[in-house]
Amino acid sequence: MADYASLEAGLAERKAQHLYRHRQVIESPQGAELSINGQTYLNFCSNDYLGLANHPKIVETFTSAAKEYGVGSGAAHLVSGHSYHHHQLEEELAEFTGYPRALVFSTGYMANLGVISALLGQGDAVFEDRLNHASLLDAGLLSQARLQRYQHLDGDDLDHKISSSRAKQKLIASDGVFSMDGDIADVKQLAQIASGYDSWLMIDDAHGLAVMGQTGRGTLEHFGLGVADVPILMGTFGKALGTFGAFVAGEEVLIETLIQKARSYIYTTALPPALAAASREALRVVQTESDHREQLHTRIKQFREGVSQLGLPVMESVSAIQPLMIGESDQALAISETLRQQGLLITAIRPPTVPADTARLRITLSAAHTETHIDQLLDTLARVIKV
Ligand SMILES: *Cc1c(COP(=O)(O)O)cnc(C)c1O
User: Fold this and answer.
1) Catalytic: which of 83, 179, 199, 366?
2) Is 239 among the catalytic positions?
3) CA Rg, the chain, in Å?
4) Which of 46, 81, 197, 297 pairs with 52 at a CA distance of 20 to 30 A?
């Protein structure tokens, strides 16, 4: 029998705990402003950090590639779905990241599942920062390796855990820029620990790619690191690059292994070729129009100076993610609702996405924001949040 009563009870419990989630229907492209239900809001909750999701050149490339290649890819990559644009994109990603080779996955979630379960199995161990993205944690669980979570950014805790491991294969996985906190992993330290214990190191740079580093090569460029230090780099297109999809970069033998063994690569339909074409154009824009990244960092600076003058509880972050720590879920939710009534969209992030009692307002900034938008944000926050 379908037990709807226990589903009802589960939903009611979520509501009582202020953890119930709702979707809102967006009626405009991504940008500094979003339209919902005929109303216009200032958008401080997208991951479109460079404002590329509606960039004219990328839209044009997407539509003309769809006219040439159609919409659907028709099959998985190993059958007949691997098109010219997918292949070119992989070569251009290898060049951009400075890695020998890259492999395009349909989503970042699938890339993480694919890599970890292709490399590890029973008898192996995966070490993950407690605040890693859910897809990395799920990947660790799916692989059937022993999943050990170390304290956030705590190299000593990682060292302690990995030094007592007798696993055959070891893999350390971390976000580059943490998605709910905006802070950065000390990748140099992770690389030292990994090499000291003969472990793989995988960095998920979904939030660092195209944002961090002098030329937008991400968190690794920020630290001056490459494939010799970080053998597995994962990046996504759905955030700063403004499109959709993901990739893994590494040595030739790693990528060939993934093509043979990563189930989330093999058993799924390839991305539409036009999307791969759009990501190629986005990659070109990131490399040729550095003003988007400069504009973003100017806004980040403006925002951080403003909030520190106001004494608001902003978390340590040099990335586009600038959370304000609130604590209680109901309070974070109430503030988010008041901000919305004032025309600002800022998501309250609550458990289980973040640890208990660390509900927060996740403010994200974008190159699409103007100086005036940030001033409006600061003025409204000052009125709504009493410190
Ligand atoms: C968004 C995100 C992913 C998932 O990428 P998708 O392409 O959206 O599936 C993985 N890791 C991190 C850190 C992310 O922020």
Assistant:
1) 179
2) yes
3) 21
4) 81
Question: Is position 179 annotated as part of the catalytic site?
Answer: yes
pLDDT digits (tens, 9 = 90+) for 259-313: 999 999 999 999 999 999 999 999 999 999 999 999 999 999 999 999 999 999 9
Ligand 1 pocket test, pick from 204, 243, 347 with the greatest ligand atom count within 8 Å of Cβ, gives: 204
Q: What is the pLDDT of residue 148?
A: 98
Of 53, 106, 153, 55, the C-alpha closest to 364 is: 53
Atom of ligand 1 nearest to the CA of 177: 13
Q: Which residues pair with 200 in a beta bridge?
A: 171
Atom of ligand 1 nearest to the CA of 236: 7
Looking at residue 387, what is its pLDDT?
66
Site residues for ligand 1, CB cut-off 6 Å: 107-109, 112, 133, 135, 175, 179, 204, 206-207, 236, 238, 246
Atom of ligand 1 nearest to the CA of 176: 13
- The sign of the CA dihedral 207, 211, 212, 215 is positive
**Among 34, 49, 56, which Cα is nearest to 278's?**
56
Angle at 260 between CA 254 and CA 261, to 5 degrees: 85
Residue 326 near residue 359 (C-beta atoms within 8 A): yes
Query: Residue 26's beta-bridge partner residues?
Result: 36
C-alpha span between 343 and 4 (Å, rounded): 38
